[in-house]
Each structure stands twice: as C-alpha cells, then as structure tokens.
Write a structure and sequence with these properties.
482 residues; mainly alpha; Amino acid/polyamine transporter I; globular
Length: 482
C-alpha cells in the first residue's frame, strides 16, 4: 500500500508549483528526501510550527486545574521535556523511513493496514475535525470581544463554513499574507509580555482557592496540546545533513526555546492578571492589554489574535482535506473524498465532509440543544449527564472529547518504534533515539498516563469517539481496495 501522506506531498507540491492540469493525480512514486538542512534551519521551522495560537487560549485552563502558580509553571516545563522526548522518537521513525510519511504509515507497517486505516478514520471523525473546531472557538472567543452580543458558537461555525468554502474555490493564502499573520502573532506575544510585567497586579503568586477544579492530568492535556506540532516538525529531520549531530541539537534548541517562550508568557499572564484572575479569564491576552491600555488595547489584541487564528485555521482545514483525499486512493469508504472538482481543482467532497463534521461538533458541545441531545443519548445507554460547565467552554470541551482518541494513536505510534526495532533489526537507522529503550519507554508511559487522564476527565464524552472508531470497523472490511 502506498503511503497516503506521500500522495498528499505530491499533490500539494504540484499545487504550489501551479501545475493545475495534473494537481489532482496522485503521484505513485515516493519522493526521495535529499539532506539539505542544518540544525538552525530545522530549529526555526519547528519553532514556527509549534508556537501557534493555543498560548492565547490554553493558560486559563491550565492554571484553573492546578493548585498553585508554581505547579502550573512546573507543568509547562514538564510539557517541554516530554515534548522533546517524543520528538526524538518521531525523529528516528522519520529518518529511518523517510519515504513513508507519518503516523498512518508507521502504524500500517508496524501493526496492520487496519490500524493505519483506523488512524485515518479517527482523524476525520475526531482528531482533525476536533482540532479545527477548537481553533474556531479560539477565533470566536476573541471575535466576541470585538463584536459583542453575538454567541461565540455562531462565530465558530460561520468561520469554519466560510474557510471551507474558500478552500473549495481554491483560494489560497499567499506567502505575503502568511508572513503578515506570523508577524502579527509575534507582535501579540511581545505585547502580552510587556503588558504583563508593566501592569504587575502584585497577585501573581497569591492563592485564594488552593484546589484545582479538575486536576493535573487535564492541565497536562492542555499544555501538550499547546506544544502540539513537534510530532510533525520532527519529520523535517529526514531532510537534515549529518543527522546524528544535527537532529539532537535542532530538537533541543527549538523545544527549549519554545518552553522558555511559554514560561515567560505565562509569567506575564500571572503578573498582569494574578493567579486567580488568570484562572477566570477566557481571553487573557485581551484582558491583560485592557489593563494596560484600556478597552481599545483589548480590541487591538483581539484583532491581532483573530487574524492569527484565521491563518492557522485555514492551514488546518487545507491539510486535513488532503489526508482524506489521499486515503480515498486506498479505501472505498474514502473514495468520494478522493474526487477532485474539475472546475476548482480541489478535493471538494473532502472539504464538505470535514466541514460538516466540524460544524456538528461545534453545535453539539456549544449549544444547549446539542448538549441535551448528547445527555439524552448518554442516559439512554445508562450513563450520567455530563458536567458541561467544568470543561471550560467549547474549546476545552472539544479538546477533552477528542483527547482519548488522540493519545491512543500517539501511544500506538510510540509502540511502533519498539515493534519496528525488533522486527527490522537489520534496517539501517540514520538516527537512533538516545538511551533506548529508556526514552521511548518514558514517551509511551507518558502517552499511557495522558490517555488515562483524558478518559477520566472526558467521562461520557469519550463514548462518542469510541463509538465512531467501532463504526469504522465494518467499513474497512467492505471498503478496502486491492
């Protein structure tokens, strides 16, 4: 079976080059990766991928679930260490199988085509769509600061629908637009740091309520979500010169820099809003600028974040559609999503399915009607209603609901490293994880703990992810292409 993600690379590569005629034809030949990148170039790419918009939304969920400010900061530091260990594991897989292209292939190779298929199925129904919905809620929370009086749920749903439509038409963000959005994000981060230490509420380490509402496990789920992207960034390792020297250097430098940035930003939040103020702030970046510059300062910050999220959301919608379109070449159930529009030269049905599932998720967790429907279903199968107020709104609810599936597959990918090491002992490994099997063991144990924590926190929400994965089984049996 050819790798779906390799096909995606071929398709996207043709689109970037402007080959309109052949863009919809998957390339069956694996691209041979030529080493050309040094450690500093790789470090800058990893930093750019990982530092996204989560830092504007996640902090109140993190500090709202720990007992003290120092424990919250310690959790961010721990998140950086665990992310580095995970990135080293992915770096070995990426450099050993540079023609394969991601979790889909590792799981297929290590376990079976069925496990790889379930990863693609879970990505469509839970992981990628849940991530899009979560980003849409970040957009909505800050857009609501600019256009007050409108339910954030509608902001989130409308932006997904509009960007899905834009991508169907084949309209792409140009390089200049992406550079502008990245620059705005940097400006926003600098503004947060300056404002936080300038305002200095004097209550950064003052604890009124010493008990976290949910627990350390969920705080780590949010933190590792903010560090998300290192697993994809590690694939860049396959293009590096002198991997034994440059891969550890690049990963250590980049993830250390990311960790420092996150620690400084959260210190700024604490100094500006205080521990209790940060725990109750749904839009901390805007709140901290409002303390320094007044209402118009909050408006400026909200605008910067809204524009930054648009770029991240657009990219997530675009790349997600390519996964399903490419898998349509391997599985009949995905065939319709593998069809490209002859008029717009885009995987139209892939966008439509992805957008529809995301919008259903947004309304399902963000409206009273949707919550009642889900609670009714849970009671029908003998479970209790969900404590919706404890999830921290639409963003936190979607992360909580999708986390068990995400950590299941991340655990399987970590396990695939052991399986492939044992099964393919003679395979040349350009880069090997240091201190094997200790570090990969720590990574797998971390995934196991995060899976346990996400299940405990999600409660009845996880039943929908489980039901979806079970639903995918018969489709594989009847839908696999020879």
């Amino acid at each position: 079976m050819d790798s779906s993600l390799s096909k995606i690379s071929a398709i996207v590569s043709k689109e970037v080059k402007g080959d309109k005629k052949n863009a919809s034809i998957p390339n069956e030949t694996h691209r041979v990766v030529k080493p050309h990148m040094g450690s500093w170039g790789c470090s800058s790419i990893i930093i750019g991928i990982v530092i996204g918009v989560s830092v504007f939304e996640v902090p109140f969920l993190v500090f709202g679930n720990v007992a003290t400010p120092l424990r919250g900061l310690g959790a961010w530091l721990l998140g950086g260490i665990l992310s580095l260990i995970g990135a080293l594991c992915y770096a070995e897989l990426a450099t050993t199988y540079p023609k394969m292209g991601g979790d889909y292939s590792y799981l297929t190779k290590a376990f079976s085509p069925y496990v790889g298929y379930l990863f693609g199925w879970g990505r469509l129904g839970v992981m990628q769509t849940g991530s899009i919905g979560a980003l849409a809620y970040v957009f909505a929370n800050y857009a609501n600061r600019i256009f007050t009086g409108i339910d954030p749920v509608w902001f989130a749903a409308v932006v997904v629908i509009l960007l899905t439509f834009v991508n169907i038409l084949g309209v792409k963000f140009g390089k200049s637009a992406q550079n502008l959005l990245t620059s705005l994000k940097v400006v926003g981060i600098i503004a947060i740091i300056v404002a936080g230490f300038f305002v200095n509420s004097g209550e950064a380490f003052v604890v009124v309520n010493s008990v976290g509402s949910a627990g350390f496990g969920f705080a780590m789920i949010m933190i590792l979500y903010a560090f998300g992207g290192w697993n994809e960034a590690a694939f860049v390792a396959a293009e590096m010169r002198d991997p034994l020297k440059n891969i550890p250097k690049a990963l250590i430098v980049s993830i250390s820099a990311i960790t420092i940035v996150y620690l400084v930003i959260n210190l700024a939040y604490l100094y500006g809003l205080g521990f209790e103020g940060l725990r109750s702030s749904r839009a901390p970046a805007a709140d901290i600028l409002e303390l320094m510059l007044g209402p118009w300062g909050a408006g400026i910050m909200s605008t910067i974040i809204v524009l930054s999220v648009l770029g991240a959301l657009n990219g997530t919608i675009l790349t997600g559609s390519r996964v399903y379109a490419a898998m349509g070449e391997d599985h009949k159930i995905f065939s319709i999503m593998g069809r490209w529009s002859p008029k717009f030269n885009t995987p139209m049905w892939s966008f439509i399915f992805q957008g529809a599932i995301t919008v259903i998720m947004i309304f399902g967790v963000g409206t009273q009607f949707g919550q009642n429907v889900l609670d009714t279903f849970l009671q029908f199968i003998g479970l209790s209603k969900l404590p919706w107020s404890s999830y921290g709104g639409g963003f936190g609810t979607l992360i909580a609901g999708t986390a068990p599936v995400f950590w299941t597959f991340l655990l399987l990918t970590g396990s695939s490293l052991f399986v492939l090491r044992f099964r393919e002992k003679k395979t040349q490994r350009v880069f090997s994880v240091p201190f094997f099997p200790i570090l990969p063991g720590i990574f797998c144990m971390t995934c196991l703990y995060m899976l346990y924590s996400s299940i405990i926190y999600a409660k009845g929400l996880m039943i929908f992810g489980v039901a979806l994965m079970i639903l995918g089984a018969p489709f594989y049996i009847v839908g696999r292409k020879k």
